[in-house]
Design a protein that fits this description.
By secondary structure, the protein is an alpha+beta fold. The protein folds into 3 domains: 53 residues, Structural Genomics Hypothetical 15.5 Kd Protein In mrcA-pckA Intergenic Region, Chain A (Roll), CATH 3.10.290.10; 97 residues, Alpha-Beta Plaits (2-Layer Sandwich), CATH 3.30.70; 79 residues, Alpha-Beta Plaits (2-Layer Sandwich). 19% of the residues lie in helices and 26% in strands. The chain is built from 5 helices and 14 strands. The strands form 3 sheets. Strands 6, 7, 8, 9, 10, 11, 12, 13 and 14 form a 9-stranded mixed sheet that branches. Strands 3-2-5 form a 3-stranded antiparallel sheet, with no helix packed on it. It has a two-stranded antiparallel ribbon with strand order 1-4. Helix 1 packs across helix 2.
Length: 264
């Protein structure tokens, strides 16, 4: 997001004041137009309320602009391995170095994946004060949810024990059908210490077996523990669904907006 040069000192007027004069509206309505990304200064969108403009600045207001508070948004990220998503685990993947790499840093306009012609345009207000819901291991990839909407955050937190999450897990070598059967019995309620889950083999190729886990009440470390208990060496894990919401065609490292019709 480029910015035109701002005026300094007493030579500049607050952009909100200029917009209020141009639209014959209140200062608060002018601020809402700016925060909503409707105002350009010298051809560049400006969203900062303290921004000041020189007297010769060219200010353009979108003809379809309507003053309104910027509504809270929910963002869906396809997290790559090596980025922290709420667990606080330091990077421990070869080639990524040391330290903590928050997945929040991926919420950048450059990583926005448009989900259709009616998708929202990224605003600065959309990318701040985002809360991460349902953590995911640093070494895993897949769907991660960030939201500004307290209703969605409350649902994902309060209903975490009953929301089904789906994962694909790759393990080394083949998997004996008896091992899958034993794991399935534990997931069906034989082991009351564990949340309910279903496990199945989806494919076997090139010395690797891919498993599918559908877990209600999943938490970080659970699937790795289940694989370790079954003497399976896990090599990769991806979360591909939360509730009714699939990862679908979202490219790794990119994010999109939750659409109005989508539900968890």
């Amino acid at each position: 997001m480029k910015h035109p040069p701002a005026a300094t000192g007493d030579d500049g007027m607050r952009l909100s004041k200029r917009v209020a004069e141009m639209k014959a509206c209140s200062r608060r309505e002018a601020e809402q137009l700016i925060e909503g990304g409707w105002v350009q200064v010298n051809g560049v969108v400006v969203e900062e309320l303290p921004f000041r403009v020189a007297g010769d600045a060219v200010i353009t207001i979108d003809p379809s602009a309507q003053p309104a508070a910027v509504a809270p948004v929910t963002l869906l990220l396809h997290k790559p391995p090596g980025f922290d998503a709420g667990t606080g685990e330091p990077v421990s993947i070869k080639g990524l170095g040391k330290g903590l790499r928050p997945s929040l840093t991926l919420l950048d306009p450059a990583n926005h994946h448009r989900n259709g012609p009616h998708d929202a345009t990224p605003l600065r207000r959309h990318l701040v004060k985002q809360s991460l819901c349902l953590p995911l291991e640093t070494g895993a990839s897949g769907l991660v949810v960030f939201t500004q909407d307290w209703r969605i955050e409350r649902k994902l937190v309060e209903d975490a024990a009953i929301i089904e999450q789906e994962f694909t897990v790759e393990v080394q070598g083949g998997v004996d059908p008896q091992v899958v059967e034993q794991m399935s019995r534990r997931g069906a309620g034989d082991d009351r210490r564990l949340p309910t889950f279903k496990v199945s083999v989806t494919s076997t190729a090139d010395g690797t077996t891919r498993l599918r886990f559908a877990v209600k009440g999943s938490h970080p470390g659970l699937i790795a523990w289940l694989c370790n208990e079954a003497a399976l060496q896990m090599t990769a894990m991806r979360r591909i669904r939360i509730g009714r919401l699939p990862l679908a065609g979202l490219p790794q490292g990119q994010w999109r907006y939750l659409q109005a019709h989508e539900r968890f």
